[in-house]
Every structure is written in C-alpha cells, then in structure tokens.
Amino acid sequence: MQVTVKEACSSGFVRLNVGDTLVTVKVSSPDGTNSQVYTIMITREQIPLAVTFCEMKDQMEFECPVSLSALYRPVSINQSDPKAIFSAPYIDMLTRRSKVHPFTDRPLGDSWKVPEGQLDKRMSSTSVKCFFAHRGCKSVLKLAEIGAHAKDCPNRPPVNLDTKEVTETNWYKKHFTSSRNLEIETKHSLQVRNWEKRLQTAVGRGQYRRLVQSC
Ligand SMILES: [Zn+2]
Fold first, then answer.
1. φ, ψ for residue 213, nearest 5 deg
2. Of the listed ranges 12-16, 153-157, 194-198, the one predicted with least confidence
3. Res 117 pLDDT > 70
4. CA 12 to ligand 1 centroid distance, Å
5. CA–CA distance from 53 to each of 59, 71, 131 (Å)?
C-alpha cells in the first residue's frame, strides 16, 4: 500500500497550527486501482497565557474582539461585512442560546460559521515573544512553537512557589500574622439623594426632561 499525508510522502512530518490542523491521509492499494482518503482534524489545546506578538500590527490583526486575546481556532461569520473573526470557543458561547451576530444582532443562517484555516496557519508562523519576556527571556519564536519553548524556558517561574518568600516578609507579618489584624474597620454613612431616587423611578425616554428640570 501507499500512504500519502497532505499530498506528500508519509515519511515527512506535519506542522501543526496553533488551533486546528486538517490532515488528509490517502491510502492506495498496491496496484493503485483503489484509494481512500481519510481526514483527521487535530486540535491543540489553548495555552492559558497571554500571547505577545513582536509586531503591533500582528497583535491588532490576530486579536479576538470578544476575548481581546490572540485568536484561537479562528472562525468568521458567513457574509459578514466587515468580516468579523472570532475565537471559536467564544463565539460558540455567545451564540449558544441566540443565533445572532453578537455585534449587529443579525440572525445567523445555516452554516454561518466559516473556519479560517489559512488565518490560523499564517498566525501560527508569526513571531511572538516568550511568555516570560518580563522575567528576562529574549527568545523570539513562531506562535506554533511557543508552547514547547515555554515548557523548557530557563526564565519560567518555579512550579512550586516557596511560601516563605511571602510569609517571611515584613508586610505579611504586619498584616496577617494575627487574626486581629484582619478585622478591618469600616464606617459607612448612607445618604439618599432625591435626584437618584427619581432616576431610579423614571421610565421611558420622555422622562429625562422632567428629571433634568427637577434637578
Ligand atoms: Zn523563554
């Protein structure tokens, strides 16, 4: 039998995108008369850390307008103008109960969700800074490779935090060593303003004039 993966020989490896990667596997019989194509969708888990692209324009382009973080498994809404692209988990959550465009309230028809595979691929090979750049890591990597780097990054914070680093500080001792210190005294005084009361009871657009006059 002959096996080809993504139209290439099976001995090669497949570069995975950050989100979804569709891999086609074609299996042919020894004489080549029969063949069958299998498709495999490989989804990588989302890394729960904020991604920082090296270029500001990339940061803007690859930002999900709902999560305000880097797109993950990007999808667009069919025939949306301007084209709206979201991270799949967030748009799925927003459209779970009401099938409308989250920004325009336009009803979403069948097959409204368009996977943006090419965008995912382009994003995956875009340069990003290491998650631990703030701790001194100077590495610049492709987004698809940052997970592997972060695992072994020398600037990665220790997994097991030493509690003594906190409990031995003067700040901690002053505020938390005795439970007496935790009783924070607060003095509240409540003042009801008439205009606030009226604002709460005012209903409808026409009422604002009366509200303004009475102030
Ligand atoms: Zn690093």
1. -60, -40
2. 194-198
3. yes
4. 28
5. 5, 12, 10
- Examine the pLDDT at 79 and tell me if it is beyond 90: no
Single pTM value for the model: 0.68
**84 alpha carbon to ligand 1 midpoint, in Å?**
32
* More confident of the two residues 133 and 204: 133
Q: How many angstroms does the Cα of residue 43 sit away from the middle of ligand 1?
A: 24
Q: Which CATH class is domain 63-124?
A: alpha beta
Q: What is the pLDDT of residue 3?
A: 78
Query: What's the 137 CA to ligand 1 centre distance in angstroms?
Result: 5
**What is the 139 CA–ligand 1 centroid distance (Å)?**
5
pLDDT digits (tens, 9 = 90+) for 149-168: 999 999 998 888 788 888 88
Q: How far does residue 66's CA lie from ligand 1's centre (Å)? A: 28
Going from the Cα of 63 to the center of ligand 1, the distance in angstroms, rounded, reads 22
Give the DSSP per-residue string, 169-198: SHHHHHHHSSGGGG-----------HHHHH
Domain boundaries, the chain: 2-43, 63-124
What pLDDT shows up at residue 9? 57
CA of 129 to the centre of ligand 1 (A): 8
Q: Check residues 188 and 131 and name the one with the higher pLDDT.
A: 131
Q: What is the whole-number distance in angstroms between the Cα of residue 45 and the centre of ligand 1?
A: 19
Q: 15-24 burial string, b = 16+ CB within 10 Å, else e?
A: eebbbbbeee
